[in-house]
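Recall the central idea of this unit: under ordinary conditions, the amino acid sequence of a chain determines the structure it adopts. In this exercise we apply that idea directly, starting from the sequence alone.
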Amino acid sequence: MTESQQVIQSVTILGSTGSIGVNTLDVIAAHPDRYKIFGLSANNNVDLLKKQCLELKPVYAVMYDKVAAKQLKKDLGNCDTKVLAGLEGLETIASHENVDCVMAAIVGGIGLAPTFAAVRSGKKVLLANKEALVMAGNLFMQAVADSGSVLLPIDSEHNAMFQCLPTTAEGKFLNLENEGFSKIVLTGSGGPFLKVSQESLADVTPDEACAHPNWQMGRKISVDSATMVNKALELIEACYLFKLDESAIEIMIHPQSVVHSMVYYRDGSVLAQLGNPDMRTPISYGLAWPERIHAGVSELDLLNVSRLDFMAPDESRFPCLKLGREAARTGDSAPVILNAANELAVAAFLSGALRFDQIPAIIDAVLQKQPVTKTGSLDEVLEEDRKARELGADLIELNTGF
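Accordingly, the structure predicted from this sequence is:
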């Protein structure tokens, strides 16, 4: 296809003011012949979304917070961008008939419904919202199959797996058993506290927990990396994405964050995807797939890196890893409960209501106390999520033994 024949994709970014959203806009800005912005959304960051709207002039802008939506509409004045609010607004820009591609980058369970709407509408969905699969994996993947949606993982680890696993021209995974597959290795940096004493974790501050050694991320995701619950969630996500049992996924600590994941095959081959820790690489891969485009990322200099280290994680230091595997094995609503309890505990830590080392204890307590049920619909998933958050809030308020 020549440049003059290039079809311009109309893109919605769910979560355009977060780190993934900002990086997506950076990649898109370098390729105006390929992409145009249809819709942008944020939770309550009026100032940044206003700036993005004035610069990019999307058809729609959505604030999840309704008070913030009123303020954005006032601030935009005569700008032609239509301002919507709440969950309905998010679902509108995710499923609109004029949208080709949706970047699902809203952090947390709040992103489930609009991401589901995009999939049901048959969009090309770039999935950075891992919680959508953690909470509703079977329902989500069935919706992808039913609608013909193209689902491309954007988490650096799952994007790496995607690049190393055999797929059809439509991006569907082949039967891995027939392809000689052995296992996947999911890598993680170990976060900022890999080498500090466990006793000192009780005194960790939110700013310290958010100071990731390699990646620039939002505060919630940074805390998840520090507890390594992000690897627990990513393990569950990989089970649904690639139709794998959790036993086929190994987690390794790799402090340099250069090898993003590895796929082992029965003949002894190991395929790995390497790159600098920069989210613009998987973002650009998803946007342009099956092509590759310039992402603005510097070339990996292995001579400068000089060494690549790998080690097994210590589950006594990172108890969330064990909790994640148990939730993956249990299935049904267990991953929903795990995710909800974690989101609540992280928010409590960031607000000063909980110590850093209490986060795993809260997650474990909610998992122990809330019965696991089958979830056959999105409404049932959301109800289990609500109950887990309510239980977690009660436990944090009582603060009994945490």
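The first strand starts at residue 9 and ends at 14.
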